[in-house]
Amino acid sequence: MKDINDISKKKLERKAFRLIHDAGGEGILQSEMRKILGVRSREGSRIAIKLLKRGSIERLKELHESRWTYRLFFTKKPATIDSIMNCPCMACDDIYKCTPGRFISPINCPRLTDWINEGTEKDKIKKIRISVH
Ligand code: SF4
Predict the structure, then answer these.
(1) Is the Cα dihedral 2, 73, 58, 80 positive or negative?
(2) β-strands 67-74, 57-64: how paired?
(3) 84 closest CA partner among 131, 111, 126, 119
(4) 93 CA → ligand 1 middle, Å
(5) Residue-wise pLDDT tens digits, 73-128
(6) Which residue's alpha carbon is nearest to atom 2 within ligand 1?
(7) Model pTM greater than 0.70?
(8) Cα–Cα distances in Å, from 67 out to 14, 36, 56, 58?
(9) Which phi and psi (to 5°) does residue 91 adopt?
(10) What domains can be seen in the chain, in order of their start residue?
(11) How close is the Cα of 115 to the center of ligand 1, in Å?
(12) Which of 43, 66, 80, 110 has a Cα at 20 to 30 A from 30?
């Protein structure tokens, strides 16, 4: 077992995050993850809880070889080009003048605000439809 003092916690969390991400829809057992990371059970739990609190992963309790463990799943989806296709900034004449703290700024841009709000409304409608079916 590696000594946790020898390895940066951040590095371990990033590695764990990558393992869970790469496991895809199957997820990965917490016990398997900690073995790959080479850390003790307690440290494996700490990492899983940290990622869980960040909302980066989900975990489901699972009986594996007569022992309870958790299966960890990646929850965050990477941004796609589709998600910014209609962003007003893509075709904005002011894009090179637009800077936070200046007169033209994304902080107070009505077009950007409308676009964000529109996306939020669409997400809400999708969620309502999903919960109705
Ligand atoms: S935030 Fe507004 S002003 Fe700035 S680039 Fe986007 S659309 Fe243009």
Answers:
(1) positive
(2) antiparallel
(3) 119
(4) 8
(5) 988 666 677 778 889 998 999 999 999 999 999 999 999 999 988 876 666 565 45
(6) 109
(7) no
(8) 27, 18, 25, 19
(9) -125, 30
(10) 4-74 (1.10.10.10), 81-132 (no CATH)
(11) 11
(12) 80
